[in-house]
């Protein structure tokens, strides 16, 4: 298995998929709470993040998650995804609805979203910094863009370390670079109940995505947090964790 991961707890399985600004360490504030509530928690590092290496062949993130569950002998799981990790969770749930018990999507991306002018400008600025070799500048740009105003200094520093590490892994010279395999995603195929979370201090794109998905996904609900930026699970875990637990207890109760 290519992906690095860890497993903790016993009970119904939850798979936590990180934002592409972070790695699986972003879920540190959720791990003890979810395991104490009676869940088995699997945290993964997608390829090129955390402890997972860059791909050595064409790949697909949702397939990677499915392969990991196969390796662990797990037939079904609830998926909790943040931002780009939410996009992976959506694809998994659409392509493998029979294996998905619930979806919790925090400030999620989605494959067919057309970015706003503000989000495009961010991407262009990041690209320019990286092309100039200014990895530190690109890292700071991401910390400023994605971490909300209520995060403490320790949280900002952890995001800084995770993003810097991801850049270092992804920008390192490799013999050959492999892209991800794009697969069709039919949102209408998703049958799992879905929690959508958005933040007031985030890019408007992610609120718009949550509103759209709340209309398109049957059995979904949208919670908008007036204090949150793009990473509510890190910014104020003491307020986000009860929202997650209430949803999970209703949809995949621990025995």
Automatic annotation (TrEMBL):
An annotated GO cellular component of this protein is: membrane
Classification via Pfam families: Abhydrolase_6
Give the AB hydrolase-1 domain ranges: 14-241
Q: Report the InterPro entries cross-referenced here.
A: AB_hydrolase_1, AB_hydrolase_fold, AB_hydrolase_sf, Epox_hydrolase-like
Keywords from the named record: Hydrolase
Q: Which GO terms describe its molecular function?
A: hydrolase activity
Recorded hits in Gene3D superfamilies, A to Z, give: alpha/beta hydrolase
Name used for this protein in its record: Alpha/beta hydrolase
């Amino acid at each position: 298995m290519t992906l690095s991961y860890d497993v903790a707890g016993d009970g119904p399985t939850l798979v936590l998929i990180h934002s592409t600004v972070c790695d699986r360490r972003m879920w540190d504030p959720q791990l003890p709470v979810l395991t104490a509530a009676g869940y088995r928690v699997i945290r993964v590092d997608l390829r090129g993040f955390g402890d997972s290496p860059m791909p050595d062949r064409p790949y697909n993130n949702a397939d990677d998650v499915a392969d990991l569950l196969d390796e662990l002998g797990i037939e079904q799981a609830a998926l909790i995804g943040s931002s780009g990790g939410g996009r992976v969770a959506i694809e998994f749930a659409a392509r493998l609805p029979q294996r998905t018990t619930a979806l919790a999507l925090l400030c999620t991306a989605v494959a067919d979203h057309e970015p706003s002018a503000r989000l495009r400008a961010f991407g262009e600025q990041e690209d320019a910094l990286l092309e100039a070799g200014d990895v530190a500048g690109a890292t700071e740009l991401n910390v400023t863009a994605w971490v909300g105003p209520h995060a403490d200094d320790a949280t900002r520093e952890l995001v800084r370390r995770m993003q810097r590490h991801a850049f270092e892994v992804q920008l390192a010279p490799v013999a050959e670079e492999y892209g991800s395999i794009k697969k069709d995603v039919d949102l209408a195929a998703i049958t799992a109940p879905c929690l959508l979370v958005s933040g007031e201090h985030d890019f408007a794109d992610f609120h718009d995505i949550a509103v759209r998905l709340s209309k398109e996904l049957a059995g979904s609900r949208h919670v908008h947090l007036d204090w949150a930026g793009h990473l509510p699970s890190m910014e104020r875990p003491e307020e986000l964790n009860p929202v997650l637990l209430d949803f999970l207890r209703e949809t995949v109760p621990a025995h």
